[in-house]
């Protein structure tokens, strides 16, 4: 079987497993590695110290998987339509079940398929849990392009999708990067109430509502509190205004169906949650 034939079979299997998007790219050092390093050094990562600790690996996939040759980038749509009215807002990605538990087993199944098709194949599976720059890998593979809000955009699915990466020691023909289609639009930059965007493609995570409501372990800085609004877990503002997300179809994955009272939950019941109830 030729590498091109194997790539076609892998893509077919990935779609059968439920990934709407799949593309192949090289396991080379990320194109935006220097920008990532400068971003870290500027302090824009805030308290996310794990990014600095894993910098060397994130800047070269071969530090993660020795002999890495190719990357299979996969994406699964989680779009559930417009949010309803309510006293609070939760980011769409958290409405359904934990996406790690949905994507990771399917990526492992894809790796097992590859290993059956080509014995000796080694791989590593990541769903934003390891030292790889998934968005950079996805863009280089042609899954989409970097939006000015730093999300990956796709012409068919906008940006409402989860990314997964499969590093391989097998060389497959790359699909090639796509071109950007944001033009002069700056809606995502302009809508941010906390001023997290310092310009196109540059975000200060310390001012991002998603960071402030998820990653930050201490209190939200006083000067930003009123700007956070009613967002209590994550934020979708810079995605909601993106014209490409108007074209995004709803997900067909049942495990991403919104859980009861999670799109706009009441605050008092949330304050009464036990750790076990929160994990549900």
Topology record:
Blueprint: H1 3-16, E1 21-26, H2 33-41, H3 50-53, H4 55-58, E2 70-77, E3 89-90, H5 99-117, E4 123-126, H6 134-141, E5 145-146, E6 152-153, E7 161-168, H7 187-191, E8 197-199, E9 202-203, H8 209-215, H9 222-228, E10 231-233, H10 237-240, H11 267-271, H12 275-279
Parallel strand pairs: 3-10
Antiparallel strand pairs: 1-2, 2-7, 4-7, 5-6, 8-9
Looking at this protein, list some descriptive labels.
single chain; 280 residues; alpha+beta; four-stranded antiparallel beta sheet; two-stranded parallel sheet; 12 helices; 32% helix
Protein model, in words:
The chain is α+β, with helices and mostly antiparallel strands and 280 residues long. Strand 5 and strand 6 form a beta hairpin. The strands form four sheets. A four-stranded antiparallel sheet has the order 1-2-7-4, sandwiched between helices. Strands 3-10 form a two-stranded parallel ribbon. The model has no long low-confidence stretch (mean pLDDT 94). The longest helix is centred in the middle third of the chain and has 19 residues, at 99-117. 32% of the residues lie in helices and 14% in strands. It starts with a helix and ends with a helix.
**How many helical elements?**
12
Number of E-state strands: 10
**SSE order in H/E notation?**
HEHHHEEHEHEEEHEEHHEHHH
Bin the strand percentage.
Answer: 5-15%
> What is the averaged pLDDT score?
94
Oligomer: single chain
* Structural category: alpha+beta
Overall number of domains: 1
* Rg of Cα set: 19 Å
Overall 3D form: globular
Side-by-side strand order of the widest sheet: 1-2-7-4
| Uncertain residue segments | none
Q: Report how far apart the termini are.
A: 45 Å
Reported for the largest beta sheet, the result is: 4 strands, antiparallel
Helix content: 25-40%
């Amino acid at each position: 079987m030729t590498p091109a034939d194997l790539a076609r079979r892998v893509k077919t299997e990935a779609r059968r497993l439920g990934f709407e998007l799949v593309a192949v790219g090289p396991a080379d050092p990320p194109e935006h590695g220097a920008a990532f390093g400068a971003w870290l050094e500027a302090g824009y990562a805030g308290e996310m110290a794990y990014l600095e600790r894993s910098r060397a690996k994130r800047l070269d996939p071969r530090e993660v998987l020795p002999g890495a040759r190719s990357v299979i980038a996969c994406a699964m749509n989680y779009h559930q339509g417009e949010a309803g009215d309510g006293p609070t807002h939760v980011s769409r990605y958290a409405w359904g079940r934990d996406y790690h538990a949905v994507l990771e087993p399917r990526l492992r199944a894809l790796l097992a398929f590859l290993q059956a098709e080509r014995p000796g194949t080694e791989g590593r599976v990541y769903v934003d849990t390891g030292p790889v720059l998934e968005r950079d890998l996805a863009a280089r593979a042609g899954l989409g392009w970097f939006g000015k809000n730093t999300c990956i955009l796709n012409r068919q699915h906008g940006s409402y999708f989860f990314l997964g990466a499969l590093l391989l020691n097998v060389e497959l023909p790359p699909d090639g990067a796509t071109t950007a289609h944001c033009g002069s639009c700056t809606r995502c930059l302009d809508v941010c109430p906390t001023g997290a965007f310092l310009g196109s493609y540059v975000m200060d995570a310390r001012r991002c509502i998603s960071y402030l409501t998820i990653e930050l372990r201490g209190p939200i800085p006083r000067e930003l509190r009123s700007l956070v609004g009613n967002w209590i877990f994550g934020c979708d503002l810079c995605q909601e205004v993106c014209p490409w997300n108007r074209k995004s179809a709803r997900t067909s994955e049942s495990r991403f169906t919104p859980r009861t009272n999670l799109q706009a939950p009441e605050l008092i019941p949330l304050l009464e949650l036990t750790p076990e109830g929160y994990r549900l």
